[in-house]
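Dear H.,

Thanks for agreeing to be a second pair of eyes. The structure we're designing against is below in token form, covering all 227 positions.
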């Protein structure tokens, strides 16, 4: 009976964990708090190479946007990040960004994802961009991604729309799962330890158990014959 309960507990934990993993793998990107499709402040739940990020859009110079924390994809991964960002912008129907939605002159609407810092006052970026002359990304799949412009942008003087990526916190259910799994392992270890300490049965105990089993089988047979 105890073994049956332990198996049920293990199955329950596996089902819960499977639900958590399933939910995480289908995590849908959403606009961040305070955003609208005409003026997006950021996107939560952007998946880049299997990692979920909350992305904030900021209109500033490179050194201001990343003064305290270096860009997440500096050196590698910026192309994948820009591609994931463009896909999320399309899926959410975003047509404008904070900082540039009020501009009236024709330009490229772009969110920069830095990939290189040359150290001489310039950086190179990939971008999710919308080549719409009126700053209004309309139509099916308007956002695209790729290397941005001449690739050299002033880190000090040029204000641009940058994407600041931050990994999402660990789901609160995961520590609960780890605790449950640890408890299950402890129960199994204690049971094995208890059995290991139990002395082997004597011949008299073995005969007694066998006689009880025979008597029980005989009683069942008699009841069936009376029926």
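And this is the sequence the design step returned. I haven't edited it by hand at all.
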């Amino acid at each position: 009976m105890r073994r049956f309960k332990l198996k049920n507990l293990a199955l329950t934990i596996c089902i819960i964990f499977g639900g958590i993993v399933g939910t995480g793998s289908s995590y849908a990107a959403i606009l961040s708090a305070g955003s609208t499709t005409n003026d997006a402040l950021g996107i939560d739940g952007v998946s880049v190479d299997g990692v979920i990020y909350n992305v904030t859009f900021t209109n500033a110079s490179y050194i201001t946007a990343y003064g305290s924390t270096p860009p997440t994809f500096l050196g590698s991964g910026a192309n994948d990040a820009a591609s994931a960002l463009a896909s999320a912008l399309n899926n959410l129907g975003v047509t404008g960004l904070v900082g540039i939605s009020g501009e009236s002159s024709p330009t490229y609407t772009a969110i920069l994802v830095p990939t290189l810092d040359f150290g001489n006052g310039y950086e190179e970026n990939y971008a999710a961009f919308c080549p719409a002359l009126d700053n209004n990304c309309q139509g099916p799949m308007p956002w695209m991604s790729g290397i941005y412009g001449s690739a050299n942008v002033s880190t000090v003087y040029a204000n641009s729309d940058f994407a600041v990526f931050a990994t999402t916190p660990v789901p609160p259910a995961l520590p609960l799962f780890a605790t449950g799994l640890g408890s299950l392992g402890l129960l199994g270890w204690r049971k094995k330890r208890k059995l290991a300490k139990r002395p082997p049965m004597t011949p008299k105990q073995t005969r007694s158990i066998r006689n009880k089993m025979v008597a029980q089988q005989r009683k069942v047979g008699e009841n069936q014959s009376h029926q």
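Two observations from my side: Residues 130 and 143 are 5 Å apart (CA to CA). The chain has a mean pLDDT of 75.

Warmly,
E.
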